[in-house]
User: What shape does this take?
Amino acid sequence: MQVVDARSADEWELVTSDAFVPLTCVALERDFRGRIEFERFDDALMVSHVTTDGLAVDRTARQASHANSDDIHLTFTLGGPGVIRQDGRGLRVAAGSVSTYATDRRYELDYTAPGQRQVLVQVSKRALGIPVALVEESCARLRVEAPVAAAVLRETLDETRGAGTPEVGETVRDLAGTMIRSSLSGTRVMPATRGGMLATVRSFMRGRLHDPELDVAAIAEQHYVSRRFLYELFAPSEQTPGEHLRRLRLDRAAELLRGGGAIGRIAESVGFTDPTTFTRAFTRAFGMLPSEYRMVA
Assistant: This one.
């Protein structure tokens, strides 16, 4: 993971040219500060975490005409409103928005509001494993509307930050392509790789810890795979799917115990219908009763 800081327009143009693509600053706050933490997986994929105090930039037509790649930017807006413009279209973004645009054509970014934070995936159109025409259609729309698939990719980016392995890169590309396909089709789309499927299953588990009926059979059914396939997915982690689910439930319970609340309600909120079963499971995992954990946590 490389980290670069900038305090002026000239510095920011140098930083972005190195990390992303050449840009021209057209507006900058007086006390501007900018930081990029970026991780390059290979020539076709880079992930960056960007923080700025407010600026507007233009990827000019001349700069775009000299592009030596077919990259797109998939951007998760974490803070600060802004506007993205390309090909005569404009998109207002805010925290929670996901957008995509092409770097081989002119674009403008208005991020002059304070508190700007984005996670940006720069990836080759041809590296996504889906037809380039679909990628172009997504860029034409600017907005990506696939909340479930976007959540999986975002969680994966957070969990693997700094890892930079080829396996992570393959998973990120797969999940990015899955997100685009899901957005365009308006339907749920399954990833193509084992890494992408594993990330999707784990995210599904985390979102349904409250459901006491959630088990391996239900998870397999929801993802159109066999129970055997699920066990094969989790084999490298040396956990079965059921063990992973149980650990997620208990870790969430421990988090809730640190924040207060009735132990019985916490048990129910993570899928345990029997307080005694919860207490036994928690004690085996943490070496103490839930009530004792709360006192020392």
Summary: The chain has two domains: 2-206, 208-297. Residues 208-297 form a domain with the Arc Repressor Mutant, subunit A fold (CATH 1.10.10.60). Residues 259 and 294 are 9 Å apart (CA to CA). The two ends are 32 Å apart (CA to CA).
